[in-house]
Design brief:
The chain has about 350 residues and is an alpha+beta fold. It has helices at about 120-135, 175-190, 195-205, 245-265, 295-300, 315-320, 330-335; strands at about 5, 10-15, 55, 65-75, 90, 95, 100-105, 145-150, 165-170, 210-215, 215-220, 230-235, 275-280, 305-310, 325. The two termini are about 35 Å apart. Strand 1 (about 5) and strand 2 form a beta hairpin. Helix content is about 25%, strand content about 20%. It has a single domain, classed as HIT family, subunit A, CATH 3.30.428.
Length: about 350
């Protein structure tokens, strides 16, 4: 019998179509990588990208070979850092200038190094760079939200094969984040507890949907998973802002992130996926609504969402906002746990 499950964080319903019962090998293989050819991200092609913002390197000068992780502005940015917002009304509508930031974190000089196969030390450097760019962008009081996301594979939106992550900073808080913030605040005002901590405690008690766990992080397939084999990776202890992650936490995160990515790769034949970090908005931005962020340090809990691209969103999903997931999250977690690493 199919089930309707409700997500208390996003306040949406999901259909778990258990009668369809899709196993890992039942999903069609999707295009793994974008088309090949010249790669501007490879070591030695530094002059083919915009000048770097920051890099971890072995003593060489800027925009030269000899780097481990490199950050550059996106050559074709969705939003630009220059200018004023100039927010104004157009009748019933609003508009503002396309001010923001769009950066690319080139994760390794090696074109063919899948993040799942990278040494833990390399993953640590990548996560360290995530934090550093987030901290820097939060200093810009025009920017309300910074999203760190990774598209792996052409079917997930990657236009270049070379391992990379993107950052887009926006002058508005995205709708998906707004709903999480509202749900977290309402839960805290009612119960004086973090919604995410409550969900995590329930998952740790049931163990049905746990994929991996360490002393600092837990990876679960959410109870109301939108997509087959969707995973949420959460700090085991309450932390509201990814910008405040310590170096020691980065080390722990690198280990479990590598394990989770390896389990997904081996279980699902290296699928395309989207990976993103949800953290708190810029609490120093001006102007801001009164009382909006007053409890955010207590009510929000940063987390990572990983979504393998195994199914397509079609008319029913677009028309209703429901998702149909053919693999129960309990079964997905079991398959992922049983992978031999």
């Amino acid at each position: 019998m199919p089930e309707l499950r409700h997500d208390p964080i996003q306040k949406r319903w999901v259909i778990i179509a258990s009668e369809r019962g899709r196993r890992p090998d039942d999903f069609p293989r999707r295009s793994e990588h974008p088309p090949g050819g010249f790669c501007p991200f490879c070591e030695g092609n530094e002059s083919k990208t915009p000048p770097e913002i920051i890099a971890l390197r072995n003593g060489s000068g800027p925009n030269q070979p000899g780097w481990q992780v490199r950050v550059v502005p996106n050559k074709f940015p969705a939003l630009r850092i220059e200018g004023n917002l100039d927010r104004r009304g157009v009748g019933i509508h609003d508009k503002m200038n396309g001010v923001g930031a769009h950066e690319v974190i080139i994760e390794t000089p090696r074109h063919d190094l899948n993040l799942a196969d990278a040494p833990v030390e390399q993953i640590q450097q990548v996560i360290w760079m995530y934090r550093e760019r987030l901290v820097d962008l939060l200093r810009d009081l025009r920017l309300k939200y910074i999203l760190i996301f990774r598209n792996y594979g052409a079917a997930a939106g990657a236009s270049l094969e070379h391992p990379h992550t993107q950052i887009i900073a926006t002058p508005v808080t995205p709708l998906a984040l707004s709903q999480e913030l509202i749900s977290a605040k309402e839960h805290f005002l009612q119960k004086e507890r973090c919604l995410f901590c409550d969900v995590l405690q329930q998952e740790l008690e049931s163990r049905e949907r746990i994929v991996a766990a360490t002393e600092e992080f837990v990876a679960v397939t959410p109870f109301a998973s939108r997509f087959p084999f969707e995973i949420m990776l959460v700090p085991r202890h309450h932390h509201h802002s990814f910008a405040e992650i310590s170096d020691d936490m980065i080390r722990h995160l690198a280990h479990i992130l590598k394990e989770v990515l390896l389990r997904v790769k081996k279980c699902l034949n290296n699928p395309p996926y989207n990976f993103l970090i949800h953290t708190v908005p810029n609490v120093k931005v001006r102007p801001r609504r009164s009382d909006y962020w007053d409890t955010i340090e207590s009510d929000f809990h940063w987390h990572i969402e990983l979504m393998p691209r195994l199914t397509r969103i079609a008319g029913f999903e677009w028309g209703t906002g429901f998702y149909i997931n053919p693999t129960a999250p309990e079964e997905a977690a079991k398959y992922l746990r049983e992978v031999e690493l």
